[in-house]
Amino acid sequence: MDLHTVKEAENGDFTINNISCNVQKSNAEQRLENVVLVPDVLPAENPPVSSRVRWFHTANIFAALFALGMVSAVTGTTFDDLAYIFDENVEVVSRIIISKNVGAFLSAIACGGLIFQIMNARSVMLWTMIAGGLGTALAPLIPELWMVHVGMFVTGVSSGVFECGANVWLVHLWGKSIGPILQIYNLMFGLGALVAPPLTAPFLGHNITEHTTHNATIFTSTIDTDYLEASSNGSNYLTKVWIPYMVFGGTYTAVGLLLIVGFILDTTKLDRVLKGDTAACKANRPMSYRFHWSLVTVTTCYVLFTVCIEATMGQMLFLYAENPSISLRGRQPLDLVTIFWGTYTVGRLISTFASLVVNPCVIVVISQSMLSVGCGVFFLLVLNPASSSWAIWLGTAMTGAGVSPLYGSACAWAFQYFHLRFVEMALILTAACIGQSVPIYLVAPLVQSSPGFFPVVLAAEAVLLLIFLFLIFFWTKGAVRMQ
């Protein structure tokens, strides 16, 4: 029987080759009223790409993520030099991060709701990557600070467009095998952010005040120790910071140009492919729209608080640790930040290999448990300040290792139950942008005035994250995974 000729009506009537039949639904069928028969193949105009082309696309995306990590990390490391170049203080210069975040936020919304619906997604990714790389490369060379804000805004737009398109693209390319790919995806960005500061350090100015060094540390994940120890009160400030900006921005642009090679190897339009996937999804839909958007919503909220914890630790741990009321002295606050990002990277590496053999939900549960223990140990600093000699180190290590796999694993878990489109990815990226920005504007002032607020914030974020984890369990329990 040709499955294309089978059509189900709401009252249970079927039409098969123009012959009407009536089938009485069983109780089980009534509970699965959204399931219908579908062909096993996608439309002919969307043939699957070859393995070689798929790996080329994937390697290109990973290289772009590595370059984007370097582009993102270089700004925080060079606030002092930019302040010298534009004759401003570090606080004023650091606001270029706001411009970048706003660009990423607006572009994620625009791509999910409009741009990718009317334009070729891969073409938009290509041109915004070129523009974003140039916006970074020229930042130290342009004459006015407001122009740097424009360049950082363009870079933020590029990152939002790229991540929205790349995530959906990878899910289409890899299907059910997306779990390890998403882990490597996040790992590549982290590696780029990790190598950028030490590569930038030789080109930084030689004379850096203690005050600006501390401010710069708040906004960056990793800073080379020689750079921190080079502080002096001299006035002969020499900088060649334009070199790493040109190298990192140029690399990002060059990787974007490789998308042209991808166009030659694979002419399929990503938006057309996704329409085919969506049609198959509607035909083979094991869930209702209520299930779909409920799962998207709780996953988005889970990502929001995951990124909140990452930003709280990454941006404010040093600020908290250097407070005189905390029992850390000398280089210990910097060592604490290094431990966080070191365990964060190790956790992501382990989860990448683990995703090859276990389901993403298992990684989420184990990582969430480690995170909860780490935040709980931090909370002991409020209940028992005398425990700070060991609690702050253990809490930092557990939190770093626990939080790092959650973003990728939670997304891979949820993507098993619906076909990812631009609109869903835009919501998730919007939540990530909000989660990254909230601690800077709402939590940082409280931590500066009352250091004890830091572990309380972490504990509250961990509790909210746990609530949304249970909600994901609730909505996926008994649900049928997409084929």
Automatic annotation (TrEMBL):
Keyword Transmembrane helix appears in the UniProt entry: yes
Keywords in alphabetical order: Membrane, Sugar transport, Transmembrane, Transmembrane helix, Transport
Stretches that traverse the bilayer: 55-76, 96-116, 123-142, 148-172, 184-204, 242-265, 295-318, 338-358, 365-384, 390-415, 427-447, 453-475
Domain of life: Eukaryota
InterPro entries xrefs: MFS_trans_sf (IPR036259)
PANTHER family: SODIUM-DEPENDENT GLUCOSE TRANSPORTER 1 (PTHR23121:SF9)
Protein name: Sodium-dependent glucose transporter 1C-like
